[in-house]
Amino acid sequence: MNHFLTMQEPDRAELLHLIQTGIAVKNHPERYANACERKGILMLFQKTSTRTSLSFQSGIGQMGGYAVPMDWNASNFSISPIRYEARYASRNCDFIVARLKKHADLQELAAYSSVPVINGCCDRYHPCQALADLMTIYEVSGTFEGVTVTYVGIQNNVANSLIAGCLTLGIRLILVTPIINEASWDGALMDRAFSSGHVTRMESLPDAAAQSDYVYTDTWVDMEHFHHADYEAIKDFRMGTMLPYQLNKGTLNGHTPYIMHDMPIHPGFEIEEELIESASSIIYQQAENRMHAQKALLMHLLQR
């Protein structure tokens, strides 16, 4: 695994190692205080961020390294072919964490970079999020055996990487996804998912919740479009279609699975506010684990 772009790169042994290392780092951070000494991340961002930016910058700083934030639109990446800028930029750092709008641009960046490229989110995948999600499930359950997860929401980049991770680990995953984000669709991944026996699709959220240890939801509107006036028609359609699938006590129908959300949260839309702060919510644990899982990822990529 030279790059981490989709969550389909690591095999089962590598993925388990990353998750277990993430937990070890979380429990004993002092043991890894020099693990990335004098190593640097270029944080190349075309999209806004809270968790990806803070977790990577904090994580490598806690391991003795440093991060250089760079706004794509304020750099020459926005005016020159990616292949030229990538060849230069990768001579000045040890990792590139790229949060880009298009997966094709991320692939080109990785193809011409001489250092590992980590996908910090694109239109098709969000593997760092899925890595933290899986670490959280393992941390809570102590195993992946017999675990069932329901993902409810738009089938998007987050769902794709979660699907890939569940396939690798053999986790049962139920998709309650009335809308598919066309830009995120990965036909080959979905063919593999549905033929595996591990991934199924259901229409009823209450029925899925009844079978699930974890129920995971996500925003219905892509963050880069949330305040755009020309996106209002799509936003209204998604809100109207998805409201019956809001994660709330009614749709859980008396069941109490662990509640997951990758944030940012829009209370009253994809989830009711009461569930966010409920005893079954592991949302903040899941968000915190972004940093710990990514520390494990950085150390793993340094050894390649």
Percentage of residues in strands: 5-15%
Mean pLDDT: 96
Helix count, DSSP H or I runs of 4 or more residues: 12
Q: Tell me the distance between the termini.
A: 7 Å
Give the class-level CATH name of the largest domain: Alpha Beta
| Helix percentage | 40-55%
CATH architecture of the largest domain: 3-Layer(aba) Sandwich
Order of helices and strands: HEHEHEHEHEHEHEHEHHEHH
Largest sheet: 5 strands, parallel
Shape annotation: globular
Give the CATH topology of the largest domain: Rossmann fold
Which strand order do you get reading across the main beta sheet?
7-6-5-8-9
| Unreliable residue runs | none
Protein name: Ornithine carbamoyltransferase
Family: Belongs to the aspartate/ornithine carbamoyltransferase superfamily.
Enzyme class: transferase
EC number: 2.1.3.3
Topology:
Elements: H1 12-27, E1 40-45, H2 51-62, E2 66-71, H3 82-89, E3 95-99, H4 103-112, E4 117-121, H5 127-141, E5 148-152, H6 157-169, E6 172-176, H7 187-196, E7 199-201, H8 205-210, E8 214-217, H9 232-242, H10 249-252, E9 258-261, H11 273-276, H12 283-302
Parallel strand pairs: 1-2, 1-3, 3-4, 5-6, 5-8, 6-7, 8-9
Tag the structure with descriptive keywords.
globular, 2 domains, 304 residues, Asp_carbamoyltransf_Asp/Orn-bd, amino acid binding, Rossmann fold, ornithine carbamoyltransferase activity, alpha/beta, five-stranded parallel beta sheet, Ornithine carbamoyltransferase
